[in-house]
Write a structure and sequence with these properties.
By secondary structure, this protein is mainly beta. Helices cover about 0% and strands about 55% of the residues. The chain has no helices and eleven strands. The strands form two sheets. Strands 2, 4, 5, 6, 9, 10 and 11 form a seven-stranded mixed sheet that branches. The chain has a four-stranded antiparallel sheet with strand order 1-3-8-7, with no helix packed on it. The radius of gyration is 13 Å and the shape is globular. The protein starts with a strand and ends with a strand.
C-alpha cells in the first residue's frame, strides 16, 4: 500500500518562499509519476504540476509556471514543491499524489496547509 506524507506547509508573507516535501512509502517510488494539487477554501481541487519518474521532465499549471518548481529524489522516495514569489491566492491545502498520465491522481497524501499573507 502506497502512503504519501506531505510536510513543509506554514504561514509566509507574500513574495516569500516555501518548500513542500512529500515522502512516499513503497519500493517502486522511482517508477511513479508524481504530482501536486491544491485546494483553496470553497474551491475545487486543482492541479499544480507533475514530474516524471526520472525527474527529468516536469510540467505546471499556468497559474504557477515560473514560480513553482517540482523535483524529486528517488533515493529518498521524496518529491518536492519549491514555491517562490508566493501570492495570497496561492493559499490552499497542498496535496501530493501519484499520477496516471499527466494530471490524474491515484493515491493522495493527507495535505499540508500553506497560508500566504498580504
Amino acid at each position: 500500500q502506497v502512503q504519501l506524507v506531505e510536510s513543509g506547509g506554514g504561514l509566509v508573507q507574500a513574495g516569500g518562499s516555501l518548500r513542500l516535501s512529500c515522502a512516499a512509502s513503497g519500493r517502486t517510488f522511482s517508477t511513479w509519476r508524481m504530482g501536486w494539487f491544491r485546494q483553496a477554501t470553497g474551491k475545487e481541487r486543482e492541479f499544480v504540476g507533475g514530474i516524471n519518474s526520472s525527474g527529468i521532465v516536469a510540467w505546471y499549471a499556468d497559474s504557477v509556471k515560473g514560480r513553482f518548481t517540482i523535483s524529486r529524489d528517488n533515493a529518498a522516495s521524496t518529491v518536492y514543491l519549491q514555491m517562490n514569489s508566493l501570492k495570497p491566492e496561492d493559499t490552499a491545502v497542498y496535496y501530493c499524489a501519484t499520477l496516471l498520465g499527466t494530471n490524474n491522481p491515484v493515491v493522495w497524501g493527507q495535505g499540508t496547509l500553506v497560508t500566504v499573507s498580504s
